[in-house]
Design goal:
The complex is a heterodimer. By secondary structure, chain A is an alpha/beta fold. Chain A is 36% helix and 24% strand. In chain A, α4 crosses α5 and α7 packs parallel to α8. The N terminus of chain A is likely disordered. The chains are: A alpha/beta, B mainly alpha. The structure holds adenosine-5'-diphosphate and magnesium ion (MG).
């Protein structure tokens, strides 16, 4: 299913370093009085996988949700600092979060399909954004998205069955299909495998590797093995600070910060 | 002795006490439920024992000669219909001379006052009946109805009875001739109210209640859902919205009579809407139902998991799309359940309707939300207040009808909840 003309993903990332897809500078996040993130800066390259790791409660999800402004929906949450997507400030008052979320898709920790049919689940984004010109084009978009999410063969005969009737792993792949059906530029995944069994996890990881040839992917995971398997770059968070950022291999084999080392060797977590 | 064994021993020692407490809890719970059921049973038993007789009505079947001397086609619908009926009774009764006016009146009083109007309507609809003999089945008046149902005992001393020996003898004669029947009393549902218990029915009250509930639903459902959506999904969390929230919860606890006073001064006093109208009744009930619907809707909206909202928001749906496309449909079973329970409460509500005059004596069913009407509970109130014996059983029967509606509505609510509620 890989576009045969496209070079392998990490070759590209290393061969031709380009302007970052997302560039975050000095991001601070407060929930009411308590500060959840302290002065985090990161550049997310295009067509690659960036993993956020760190102990639970360290602010990974909070940071991830800044990129599509999902934190706007939490009344007590205040975000400061600058984040650009393709050089555009996403906090610019002229940017509508609705439009931003069409460009930055998200997959959540717990599979959350709508209680609609499988087809309607995937077609939802294209429908609300008016991406398809007609029934046929919509069907095409849905099929393509389901194929990319490696779910097509399993569901092609029951597209009208409810999405909530699938197994956990299938539901999560359905959510991925739903997210990529709007053809986003960035895909955010918040612990997408934490509710899945090892086989479903392996399927999703394979999928992430494939999708990274088209999208820029940011994945939050509490599993260091997963970060090591799927990501090109890894950021380690601790108590609201980004402690370490680098190529995944370097972070895991040769961490610079003692806290990172403590975490990956299992002494904090 | 090892430490484990001590623990085990201690647990064992306390086990008996814990089991006893559990049995006590179980027994007292069972007792409470039995008590509640006994009360409910007593209520239904008393209602049925007094009300069951109102579900049948004593009728007399007569061969009526539509006498052209009394009833003339050119004077319809007027005519001596009562005289014709008295004559028919006279033929059925041996040894009763109808020469005296007082005797004629006594004989005529066997039949309901409405009998002559039934005859009149039949003849007016078909004037060719004049001069013929027709078979007519009409209700008997309340005392004879009571006599037939056993509520008047012929063994009590004559002075303490509503019917003297002669009257009882007349009725017995009719019974012996096989002219008396007690069919199901459809009049209870299809007649409007009347001064005469044997004619009084709930039609006006049923239609009045229906109009009031329709108005109540049309106002409280959209407004209640709108308010709940605003408060739950859109309103900023600040002092002002907290104030509104507290007040809505308080509104649900305001005694209903207060809403009646409010409606009296605002809807009737300021807006000049008519008294006794189901429209005003419905508006008043809507005031009371709205807090119930708001609270039920908010609870239902809250119960929709955040993950569904996040999924839609994450795909770029606007707030409005999230609410109307995802949250509201998932909350609908809960909202409908709350609405039906709110409407059931409104159906049984009496005090505010009394204040806006829906307890007027009205002998025709309303033909719209603006014409005067009663409602089921106010009709019960009126009948309970009437001295005639026949109204006592009718009151109980009307209460049973009202309870029937309430139980049906609550059953529908329970059914909807079980059938449509989603599990996440
Ligand atoms: N909606 C919220 N309201 C208040 N505090 C929150 C909220 N979400 C997260 N937090 C706090 O922010 C910190 C970071 O949380 P989160 O980003 O979810 O951590 P992680 O995803 O790394 O486990 C935690 O201390 C958490 O308690
Ligand atoms: Mg998290």
């Amino acid at each position: 299913m890989l576009d045969s003309m496209a070079p392998a993903p990490d070759m590209r990332a290393t061969a031709a370093p380009r302007a970052p897809k997302i560039d975050a500078r000095g991001v601070n996040v407060h929930y009411g009085e308590t500060q959840a993130l302290h002065d985090v800066s990161i550049a997310i390259p295009d067509r690659s996988v960036t993993a956020f790791i760190g102990p639970s409660g360290c602010g990974k999800s909070t940071f991830l949700r800044c990129f599509n402004r999902m934190n706007d929906t939490i009344p007590s949450c205040r975000v400061s600092g600058g984040i650009t997507l393709e050089g555009e400030d996403i906090f610019d008052p002229r940017i509508d979060p609705v439009q931003l979320r069409a460009r930055v898709g998200m997959v959540f920790q717990k599979p959350n399909p709508f209680s609609k049919s499988i087809f309607d689940n995937v077609a939802y984004g294209p429908r609300i954004h008016g991406l398809a010109q007609g029934r046929d084009e919509l069907a095409d978009i849905v099929e393509t998205a389901l194929r990319k999410a490696a779910l097509w063969d399993e569901v092609k005969d029951r597209l009208t069955a409810p999405g909530t009737g699938l197994s956990g792993g299938q539901q999560q792949r359905l959510c991925i299909a739903r997210a990529i059906a709007t053809r986003p530029e960035v895909l955010l995944m918040d612990e997408p495998c934490s509710a899945l069994d090892p086989i479903a996890t392996a399927q999703i990881e394979e999928l992430i590797a494939e999708l990274s040839s088209r999208f820029s992917i940011v994945i939050v995971t509490h599993s260091m093995q997963q970060a090591a398997r799927v990501s090109h770059r890894t950021a380690f968070f601790h108590l609201g600070h980004m402690v370490e950022l680098g190529d995944t291999d370097a972070v895991f084999t040769n961490p610079r910060d003692p806290r990172t080392e403590a975490y990956i060797t299992g002494r904090i977590g | 002795m090892t430490p484990q064994l001590t623990t085990l021993d201690r647990v064992q020692a306390s086990l008996g006490r814990r089991r006893r407490k559990e049995r006590l809890l179980r027994a007292s719970g069972l007792l409470a439920i039995l008590f509640a059921f006994a009360m409910l049973g007593a209520l239904f038993l008393s209602l049925i024992s007094t009300g069951h007789s109102a579900f049948v009505q004593t009728h007399a079947t007569l061969e009526v000669y539509v006498d052209p001397d009394e009833i003339r086609e050119d004077r319809l619908p007027r005519g001596g219909f009562d005289e014709v009926l008295v004559a028919a009774l006279g033929r059925a009764l041996d040894g009763v001379a109808l020469d005296e006016r007082s005797t004629r009146r006594r004989v005529g009083a066997i039949l309901s006052n409405g009998a002559q109007f039934q005859l009149r309507d039949r003849v007016a609809a078909d004037p060719s009946l004049i001069g013929q003999t027709i078979t007519l089945t009409v209700p008997v008046s309340d005392p004879y109805d009571q006599l037939n149902k056993g509520a008047i005992d012929p063994d009590t001393p004559e002075a303490n009875r509503r019917l003297d020996d002669d009257q009882i003898a007349m009725f017995t004669q009719l019974q012996a001739a096989g002219l008396i029947s007690t069919p199901l009393n459809w009049g209870l549902l299809v007649n409007a109210d009347s001064r005469f218990p044997e004619l009084a029915g709930l039609k006006g009250a049923l239609i009045g209640s229906a109009w009031a509930l329709i108005v109540c639903f049309l106002i409280s459902f959209p407004l209640g859902i709108g308010a709940a959506i605003y408060l739950e999904e859109l309103a900023p969390r600040n002092r002002f919205s907290t104030l509104i929230e507290v007040n809505i919860n308080n509104l649900a606890a305001v005694p209903s009579v207060v809403y009646g006073l409010l409606a009296l001064s605002v809807f009737i006093g300021w807006f000049g809407l008519p008294r006794s109208a189901p429209l005003v009744g419905g508006m008043t009930l809507a005031l009371m139902t709205m807090p119930t619907i708001i609270i039920a809707t908010r609870a239902a909206l809250k119960a929709v998991p955040a993950s569904i909202r996040e999924a839609a928001l994450g795909l770029g749906a606007s707030r409005q799309q999230v609410v109307f496309g995802h949250v509201l449909p998932l909350a609908m079973p809960g909202i409908l359940t709350g609405t039906i329970i709110g409407l059931a409460q409104a159906l049984g509500e009496t005090a505010p309707l009394l204040l806006i005059g829906m307890n007027a004596f009205i002998t025709s069913a309303p033909d719209g939300p603006l014409s005067s009407a009663t409602a089921l509970p106010t009709q019960i109130f009126i009948w309970a207040d009437s001295p005639e014996r026949g109204f006592a059983s009718r009151t109980s029967a009307a209460i049973l009808v009202l309870l029937g509606f309430l139980i049906t509505m609550n059953a529908v609510a329970v059914f909807l909840r079980n059938k449509l509620e989603r599990k996440w």
